[in-house]
Amino acid sequence: MITSEVVIMRTLRKVLERMESVEKRLLLVGFLLYLFLPMVKNHPAATSYVGNVAVPLYEGIASALFFFGALAFTRILHEIREK
Fold it and tell me: DSSP states of 1-44 as a string?
């Protein structure tokens, strides 16, 4: 069990080392925006006109950033596993 965890951690480290800094930022910022999304949705100002426009935009931006970061992560992981 410990050996499989070590292999997984080494693979993750290799992936993160090969990712470009922009790809790392996309993954991190998208994830962090998703963490704050429930707080933004439950804010009292979220029911105003500006909130009704801004919250879906915020959600879309968070989704796009996280998706492209995860896509880059998966691409590099696939390249490492092929070798």
Answer: -HHHHHHHHHHHHHHHHHS-HHHHHHHHHHHHHHHHHHHHHTSG
